[in-house]
Amino acid sequence: DQQVKQNSPSLSVQEGRISILNCDYTNSMFDYFLWYKKYPAEGPTFLISISSIKDKNEDGRFTVFLNKSAKHLSLHIVPSQPGDSAVYFCAAKKGGANSKLTFGKGITLSVRP
Amino acid sequence: ETGVTQSPTHLIKTRGQQVTLRCSSQSGHNTVSWYQQALGQGPQFIFQYYREEENGRGNFPPRFSGLQFPNYSSELNVNALELDDSALYLCASNEGAPYNEQFFGPGTRLTVL
Questions:
Q1: What are phi and psi of A60, to 5 degrees?
Q2: Which end of chain B is more exposed for a tag (fewer CB within 10 A), N or C?
Q3: Which residues of B touch A96 (CB under 8 A)?
């Protein structure tokens, strides 16, 4: 059962435009959501996160929006840059004593110069 | 501050064999998690160790086992390898609290023939 879903496998955008990456989840016990970026031959690196008590978190060019009623979150990258081309994973965490993350399948973002 | 390192980078084994993968956590991080990332999938949580004790386990059989050592290193052991065990194995470390950022290593690519 895929509790975190990233239904679009890929996205291509023009440099300077907005990239919107979507993620849906099914488990209402998730209370913390994260986005990771992964380049080939490297491990995932943390990008931005949001607690379930918020609906928006912004960090420079990256903003994450959370819609709890729809169990949906999105990552906005503005403006997109060629260096943003990577695989983006949405991940979620339930409350508890361990750090277990549940990941989606990832979206490959390509930013065209 | 050194990052998370993993060894070896690549490994080829045959069905039925046993394998040990190694991870060196970031200094001061007393929590380590292991994930399996199959091709085209997101990372899946295998288990986590906190202060050398298992502290959570995902849906993986007992032939997946681990150890964590006081010097911030850890091991993932897989017995009786199966073809489906072919994947990228990632370790991630963080300081104790479950919501602290996890730092991932570059992974070990295991191929089972």
A1: 65, -125
A2: N
A3: 56, 98
B53 phi-psi bin (left φ>0, alpha ψ -120 to 50, beta other): beta
Strands (E), A6-106: 10-14, 19-25, 30-38, 45-51, 56-59, 62-67, 72-77, 86-94, 102-103
Closest CA to A48 of A86, A79, A88: A88
Farthest-apart Cα atoms in chain A, separation: 44
In order of A5, B18, B41, B106, B107, the CA distances from A40 in angstroms are 21, 27, 14, 9, 11
What is the percentage of chain B residues whose pLDDT exceeds 70? 97
CB contact under 8 A, A100 and B58: yes
Give the count of beta carbons closer than 10 Å to the beta carbon of residue B110: 21
Whether residue A34 contacts residue A45, with contact meaning beta carbons closer than 8 Å, is answered with no
Q: Are A36 and A89 in contact (CB under 8 A)?
A: yes
Give kind and range of the element (H or E) at residue B87: strand B87-94
- Please indicate whether, in this complex, the C-beta atoms of B106 and A89 are within 8 angstroms of each other: no
Express each pLDDT in B47-62 by its tens digit. 999 989 999 999 999 9
Of the partner residues A41, A99, A104, the one whose CB lies closest to the CB of residue B42: A104
